[in-house]
Amino acid sequence: MSSLKKFFGTKKSSTDTTKDAVRKLEDTRDLLMKKSDFLEKKIAECITLAKKYGLKNKRAALKVLAQKKEYEKQLTRMDNTLSIIENQLQTIDNAGMNLEVFKVLKATAGSLKDTHKNMKIDDVQNTMDDIMEQRDIAQEISDAISNPSAFGLDVDEDELLAELQGLQEEELQNELLNIDNVPELPNVPARDLPNPSTSEDKEQDKQLKDLMAWASAE
């Protein structure tokens, strides 16, 4: 059996086959890029020689330019091949990414299926109905507990407003009475009051005059 495997080879998986294809494409791309660099150098050499020969050696210059044209054709073919290889590598890369996304989606779908396996729509609906019913009951209990009439606290709001208005009117009347009972101020005198400082000044002037008269008599 082992000899048959060696002769025919073992069967490769799709992943290994894809990796081999990518590796071969990359090797071919690298080889073509090296040859493209070589052709670009040869084209540059031909241009240099053609300028060197110029009109002095017209035949040699034309031969070099003809060789340059051939190199340019080869370079164009290689560039086209490189574009095809790059597109193929990009396609393989996108296919691999799509495969990974598909695997994730498939695993997610399986998990959801296992999760919902023990869940029935009718059971879910019944559970939601029970939740809504219990919420309504809780609301009714809360309303009953917070109702003021249950503790005799249900008071007519109009009655309270009337009482408040009466208190405000009573306060206003008290303020008006306080204004009427302000004590009277004393009357302002009709003539000017004597200035105490004026009498004192007159006494000082009299004493000064007496002193001056005594000094003159001496």
Structural commentary:
The chain has 218 residues and is mainly α. Among the domains are: 16-110, ESAT-6-like (Helix Hairpins, Orthogonal Bundle), CATH 1.10.287; 119-149. Helix content is 81%, strand content 0%. The chain contains six helices and no strands. The chain is flat. Keywords: Endosome. InterPro entries: Snf7_fam (IPR005024). This is Charged multivesicular body protein 4Ba. Pfam families: Snf7. One of its GO terms (cellular component) is cytoplasmic side of plasma membrane.
Low-confidence stretches: 1-8
Structural class: mainly alpha
Rg calculated over all Cα atoms: 60 Å
Helix content: over 70%
Mean pLDDT: 78
CATH topology of the domain at 16-110: Helix Hairpins
Quickly count the helices: 6
What gross morphology would you assign? flat
CATH class term of the domain at 16-110:
Mainly Alpha
Task: Please name the defining characteristics of this protein.
218 residues; Helix Hairpins; 6 helices
Please provide a brief summary of the model.
With 218 residues, the protein is mainly α. 81% of the residues lie in helices and 0% in strands. The radius of gyration is 60 Å and the shape is flat.
Topology (elements, then pairings):
Elements: H1 2-8, H2 14-53, H3 58-116, H4 121-145, H5 157-180, H6 196-217
Helix pairs in contact: 2-3
